[in-house]
Amino acid sequence: MDGQKKLIPMDAMPVTRQKTKFISVLMALFVFMYGWAVSFSWAGKYTDSAHGDKIFGVKRSALSAYGRGNCGHCHLQHGSIEGQAIGPNSQAIGPNSFGLFAPNYNTNVTESPYEASDNICFLCHGPSSYQSGGITNYDYSKTFGGSSFVTVNTIFDAFNLKNLYTNSSYHDLYDIYSFAKNQGWSFFKDKSNPCVACHNVHLAKLIKHNVQNAADYSAVSLPVSKNIGNRQEGHNTLWGDDTDERMSELYPSHYQAPFYYSSQSTYEPGGVSDYTGQKMPDYVTFCTACHNSTNEIYSTELGRYLRKIDWYTIMNDGDSAEVYSDKHGRNPASVIIYMKKPYVSTVGIGRDINFITSCTDCHEPHGSPNPFLLRSEVNGVIISQQINIDDNTIGYFCKACHKDDAALYGNSSLTNKWEGVHHIEYDAPYPRQHCKTCHDMGGGGMGGKPPIPCLKCHKHGYKDSLSGRICF
Ligand code: HEC
Ligand code: HEC
Ligand code: HEC
Ligand code: HEC
Ligand code: HEC
Ligand code: HEC
Ligand code: HEC
Ligand code: HEC
Question: Which ligand is located closest to the Cα atom of residue 428?
């Protein structure tokens, strides 16, 4: 059954029932929008999208009249179907923006936990789904990293981890909404949905069924316009689907894909043999469309503006790395680094220093049991310890890629101790003397007291004045 043939042209569809004034208004609005839609480049590509897909696409249990993939599963075309109202919980049909079957987004809720009714996406992408058979979406660590640790089953869960994990984090939807609106992006309207800042709901492809070709089947669109060659990328194109929108192209031969879970021979995304990032959407360009060195971004959860991130600048003079910009970005690390595989020359891209990493090598896009959207599986390793922001537990995260003392000295009793890279090894930043100058920073001296909280120094864009080094 071809749902598409039934639905187009939409404005020719007979309105047979319940011609209230309300519905006429909605219909007029929707017909207007349809005219608008065909002038957009997504119009023809909807059938390739996850929602328009003939096998996996939208199909609400309550709507037997419409074929799978039909726009009508999200947009009201009749106001009611077979005498049944289509709103949530059979409520009276409200005049929803964009002619949607439920309110698009509730701007009154500024923080999680969210209710499913706060966002139309959650009505299908949540535990009690309107979609026939329901929808499962795991997090990035599981879907692309192969983690055996299930933290969430749906997108709704990913944004609602607060009640389950005290140190969890998520992309605050209200902050995204406010930020997007203030940017003046033409596609983002007053009544728009914050998910739409990152996704074009009419284009997003089925990435979860194609994890090893995550780039070809990208689910995201850039919120800003960007000229690539002679084409323009933005909200009305997918980001990552073209070969020059991959991590391998961002900074050629400097991206090393992290290991897939418990593997020493396959890589992200999804356990591929390629380790150069040819299969990875360029998520750096994607995330830095918002998180760059100029945008002011407010976080309700953190109660402050976010630090700015410069992933691109490389200085050319001798002491380049310590001038500005993140070393996990294009800026090289200083002198020598003590890394675990595959960030060593004997495997992968064959270099020992001067890598670029992807934001998604460390971060989840939606929510995480850890602070700062930090992944629960990194470089093939599950981070099972609780990560706090004010002690050394974040070291368990760093040691998925970096050598702690246990790895440097082959002694497991030194797990998550970090004396080697700070005091002992070649190019360590701090002489081991006048201990109190530093080891009182955390509120305790040495003698068995806690080590210095890592995040005092290791954060995006931070330069430590004691050593003069860029610390991240
Ligand atoms: C009527 C139900 C429904 C609604 C409402 C809905 N979706 Fe979906 N969505 C689906 C279905 C069905 C799929 C494909 C299912 C599958 O196989 O995982 C899907 C897939 C996706 C994908 C593709 C990625 C993937 O591999 O799973 C994205 C991205 C997505 N939806 C985003 C959204 C956003 C954003 C909204 C709200 C603006 C939304 N959806 C609202 C039903 C819905
Ligand atoms: C998965 C649910 C879903 C499906 C299926 C869907 N839409 Fe939409 N559509 C939305 C949402 C949500 C918005 C609001 C976008 C925003 O928040 O800015 C929207 C907005 C629109 C708009 C106005 C703004 C824009 O983005 O262009 C038009 C026109 C439109 N849809 C037409 C269609 C047509 C035509 C189809 C079928 C070919 C369709 N939609 C299928 C969810 C859907
Ligand atoms: C800040 C950007 C951002 C926002 C906001 C965002 N997403 Fe995503 N989303 C992503 C990225 C990046 C991916 C691709 C990686 C992945 O699949 O985890 C993704 C993937 C997805 C997928 C596919 C997941 C899978 O199984 O792989 C779905 C479904 C989805 N998003 C729905 C939503 C919904 C619904 C919302 C709003 C409640 C939303 N997203 C908000 C960035 C975002
Ligand atoms: C996904 C792997 C990965 C994780 C996780 C990771 N890093 Fe890194 N880190 C790297 C890579 C790769 C480099 C080298 C970058 C380069 O060579 O330009 C690096 C470089 C650095 C540098 C620069 C060192 C120098 O000599 O200039 C510091 C400092 C650093 N990381 C600290 C941390 C801390 C602290 C954590 C934990 C919060 C962490 N990293 C987590 C991959 C990772
Ligand atoms: C559309 C703009 C936009 C895009 C694209 C975007 N973000 Fe954000 N991000 C925000 C806003 C707004 C906030 C502040 C709200 C908050 O703290 O959740 C934020 C907050 C964050 C935080 C701090 C969350 C916390 O509470 O600790 C992290 C980490 C983050 N983003 C990572 C990412 C990563 C990684 C990507 C790419 C996958 C990304 N962002 C893409 C807008 C964006
Ligand atoms: C200029 C700052 C500075 C001075 C001075 C300093 N340290 Fe450190 N030291 C650090 C930093 C930073 C770390 C890494 C964070 C941590 O583990 O506490 C560290 C780590 C250590 C560790 C590993 C602790 C652990 O659990 O990971 C030991 C042991 C240590 N230092 C001993 C000393 C001793 C003994 C002295 C004085 C003789 C000293 N340090 C002086 C900055 C300093
Ligand atoms: C007082 C500031 C400070 C604190 C606190 C601190 N570090 Fe560092 N750390 C540094 C500096 C400076 C460097 C050297 C960066 C460079 O080489 O340019 C460094 C380097 C590193 C590196 C990269 C080593 C390499 O291979 O080059 C890692 C990993 C690291 N620290 C982890 C940690 C962890 C984990 C903690 C908490 C237990 C911690 N640090 C606490 C300042 C600090
Ligand atoms: C090597 C791991 C790693 C990579 C790669 C990485 N981050 Fe982070 N990110 C962290 C850690 C650790 C923190 C917590 C410390 C801090 O706030 O900087 C963090 C914090 C953040 C924050 C919150 C900043 C604040 O003000 O508290 C944002 C936003 C963010 N990251 C975005 C990004 C973006 C965008 C990228 C890619 C351009 C990226 N990150 C790449 C590890 C990483």
Answer: 7
